[in-house]
Design a protein that fits this description.
The chain is an alpha+beta fold and about 170 residues long. Helices cover about 45% and strands about 20% of the residues. Strands 3, 4, 5 and 6 form a four-stranded mixed sheet that branches. Strands 1-2 form a two-stranded antiparallel sheet. Strand 4 (about 95) and strand 5 (about 100-110) form a beta hairpin.
């Protein structure tokens, strides 16, 4: 029960509109904008989500132990793209980009026998570093989703089978 001098506690969850900043306090958004190289007194720089995803994808691919990026369907489409000479460097990467901050989700296939948690940590560090240094965004989080483990013998067999099919098709043509 509240006394006359004590404010009543809110019932239910607290909403952002329930919060009143203290005098002279700044929101974290305005502080982030002040410290961002993307927002200056001479103007702002907006970096497209696709650019941020591509840089994150390049950083993740460079990590030892990362075989591929993306889940099953993304990798299947990526395989088709590669056959026609195109590569999607943002495959397996989802970003949410704000004015000065970004959150990243990366889906990876790890090469066996690399320790999964160590590869995930190195991917996370590389993406943080690349986006903060190359783009100027504050990275709030990098979530790494490991969807598969690449065992070299599995792909070797698959590659041999694809090669046989291509040979058969070329003979029939």
């Amino acid at each position: 029960m509240s006394t006359p001098n004590t404010p009543a506690k809110p019932s239910g969850p607290v909403k952002p509109s329930d919060l009143t900043p203290t005098a002279g306090a700044r929101s974290t958004d305005s502080l982030a904008e002040e410290n961002s190289p993307l927002v200056t007194s001479r103007g702002t720089t907006h970096v497209a989500d696709g650019v941020v995803a591509k840089i994150a994808g390049i950083a993740a691919r460079d990590i030892e132990g990362v075989h591929e990026l993306g889940g099953g369907a993304a990798r299947a489409f990526g395989s088709l793209r590669e056959r026609v000479g195109q590569t999607d460097l943002s495959q397996g990467v989802h970003v949410e980009v704000g004015k000065t901050q970004a959150a990243v989700d990366v889906t990876v296939v790890v090469e066996y026998p690399h320790p999964l948690h160590e590869v995930a940590a190195r991917v996370r560090d590389a993406v943080f570093e690349a986006l903060e240094e190359l783009v100027g965004l504050e990275v709030t989080e990098v979530n790494v989703d490991i969807t598969d483990v690449h065992v070299p013998s599995e792909d070797d067999d698959r590659d041999r089978e694809q090669s046989r099919e291509q040979t058969r098709e070329s003979r029939l043509a």
